[in-house]
Amino acid sequence: MPGSCEAAITLTGDLHARPAGSLSVMAARFASVVELTVGANTADAKSVLAVMGLGATRGQRITVRAAGADAAEAVAALIGILAEATPVGG
Amino acid sequence: MSDEAMVGIVLVSHSAALAEGTADVAGQIGGGSVVIAAAGGTDDGGIGTSIARVRRAVQRAAAGAGVVILPDLGSSVLTVRALLAEEDFADPVALADAPFVEGAVAATVAAAAGGDVKAVLQAAEEARHARKL
Question: Which residues of B are marked as active site?
Fold first, then answer.
């Protein structure tokens, strides 16, 4: 049953390469289309290069939006990773 | 997914330091679960490529699911092609037409997510279109 889901979180650290990789590896496990939006920019969460290209930094609001059968699970998993992302570089 | 073999990545560069450094970066971003084998420099450690080093790297990276090879420039491609022409590996082996650093990162993430050779190759080659700014 296709559905859609959306949630947002304020970043406590910059979205460095390492958390971007974690996000994309996790996003790829879901069948749903998953997007990240920061300001005017939206990236396919399954593309690590697109996620890094967002250049999201601490204090910015990031929205996770998913559409598909496992949309709710995908959004919950990605919000979990974003909540854990730390200001430490990587 | 984690109990299945992942696609391995081979980075072929004219420079051992470039291959190893790129492997380090891609490994960090990919979470460390993917085998990334560096094959840089000549047999005597100079700038160039070595068919023997590439062969050993493919053997290290092959875990049953296949191997995607990323060459840096020019004769890296020729060296890989020469190897693939003279040797049949048990794993499927694909040569990616991709930017070296971005392709390595995208391929590693695709492999870590459980992608097959086709998916990893596609991720590497799509890196050509990713904007940095």
Answer: 14
| A74 touches B: beta carbon within 8 Å | no
Active site residue A16: yes
For the four alpha carbons of B49, B52, B55 and B57, in that order, the dihedral sign comes to negative
CATH number reported for the structural domain that contains residue A22 in this entry: 3.30.1340.10
CATH 3.40.50.510: does it fit domain B8-129? yes
pTM: 0.92
For residue A47, what are the CA distances in angstroms to B28, B45, B103, B124, B127? Answer: 16, 35, 11, 10, 9
Cβ proximity of A21 and B31 under 8 Å: yes
Average pLDDT of chain B to the nearest whole number: 95
Out of A9-18, B7-16, B89-98, which region has the weakest mean confidence (pLDDT)?
Answer: A9-18
Domain span at A63:
3-84
Please answer yes or no on whether A29 and B113 come within 8 Å at the CB atom.
Answer: yes
A89 domain-assigned: no
Sign of CA dihedral B78, B79, B83, B89: negative
In a domain, A71, yes or no: yes
Q: Return the pLDDT at B133.
A: 79
Q: Testing the interface with B: which of A42, A48, A54, A78 to mutate, by most B Cβ within 10 A?
A: A48
